[in-house]
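user: can you give me the structure for this one chain? tokens are fine.
assistant: on it. calling the predictor now.
[tool input]
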Amino acid sequence: MMRMTINRKMDASKMFAVWRIDSPWQPLTRKGQGKRMGGGKGPIDHYVTPIKAGRVILELGGKCEFEQALPFLEEVAHKLPIRAKATSYEMMMAEKEEAEKMARENINPYTKDDLFQIGSSIIMFRFLLSLRIGQLFYIVFFLRHPKEETLETKMAEIKTEPVDVQSESVEPSESKKVEETPSNEAVDGNKPGDLEAKIIRQVEYYFSDFNLQRDKFLKGAMSTDDGWVPMCTMLKFKRLSELSVDGQVIINALKKSTTGLMEINEEEAKIRRIKSKPVPAETEEYLQEIKERTIYCKGFPKQGTTLDKLIEYFASYQKVENVKMRFFKNKDGSLGFKGTLTATFSTKEQAENFLKLESVKYNDYVLKRQWCADWEKEKTQEFEERKKRKAEKRSTDENENGVEKETESRKPFPRGAMLKLSNLPDNVDRDSIKKALAGFDANVAFVDMISEGVAYVRLRGENAGKQVVEKVENNSITINENDKADISILEGDAEEEYLKKLEDRLESSGNSFRGNRNHRGGRGGRGRGRGGRGSRGGFRGRKRAGSPGGEGTAAKQTRSD
């Protein structure tokens, strides 16, 4: 697939591509990334070994700009079995110089938290697609430490559930710096800082009505100790551990919460949802009440949009209890953001106020908003209409009058679009006629070659033939540079007679196709069989005449010398 992408996308007149390592002889496995890289077995090992060795897999070059090659470089990166991003040659060299400088000055790029992140990570190999303008494109593989990444350069990762699946990661080193920065401490001792506010929001989301009704892991942990959940269990949640790996920091943040949803035990080692606010039963009335305060939003950018960014965006409006991103599955099994979501507000009045706003934008993207219930009705109606169209098409194929219906639904040929070419030389073919008419801006649909130097040309568009004849001088056109042919337009009865024959011809060919499709035909059919044993015809097991023990002449005579 990667080879096909390169061949189809690149401009062969300006660019070239050389594969330094042949592609695998069988498709790469579709298993998860950890399983693919963990063992290094099978077809994936075809690329793992060059990655570890730092070899070049693909050279792609030519006269072009980085922006011209970026789209299909990213497409190739998406097809590769490991995460990738595209970058310019200059950016790659700048990173290399920075790494060499740190090595010369004996600067350790890893902090304590960085080492923790590396130790807990399964895969640390990443690679870049890079380009040197005017010379060579390279796919370069190397080991990057986490500190080199920023939120702007990371690939957007998908997060569908609160239980840490495919969420955008925040480096522990950055989280630690935020904890130790004096500016993060609140001026008022009871007011949470930025990090503490994020911790409160994340923990309370885990214990919210939305999450507890679908999070089996957390519900199981709450059922063992009167609802208390140890901090060591809470730190297993990826999004929470990305904010802080210190349980005491999380406890101190929850002490500043003003919602009254959580409580802490005396030893400050466990937390639970307060018993006075039990999780509501998932009844039809409860689900309908949630739907009545849920808004459907469309128009978000499909690339680079994360759940954290969306939660931060909706924080500027009235309280939003839940934001649910909608995803689609790619051919390789990965998930992609659709650019749509549902946002559930605390009250129906708050949802109405958001819906009444004249214009709502997200980073200059205008958002389309409507009630989630109305959107679901539209989708249901679209599904029913699509289902009905398929049923009608299926019944048309099976209906004995389906031929007449299809004939009636066929669009009529445009009038004033038929040309007649006469006095054609013998060496003229369809391509030469199309080439000659192209000089008169003629959009040729079909060329019907008739014997005795006559051809009929059907153009696309009403009165298209009249426009061509008006441009021709002396009703004559040049074909193959030296040959001349007379040109005229079919009008009146001559045009109607020709188009009627053409329609009859198309209908006849359609009937023939349908007949062959519904009935067995072709050469031989089923017939009496091919002979041999049983009841398939032939000699039915009897001895052939002329064979040993048989009578008569031989079945096959050989030439005697």
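assistant: here you go. The chain has four domains: 2-148, 186-273, 285-378, 418-508. The radius of gyration is 36 Å.
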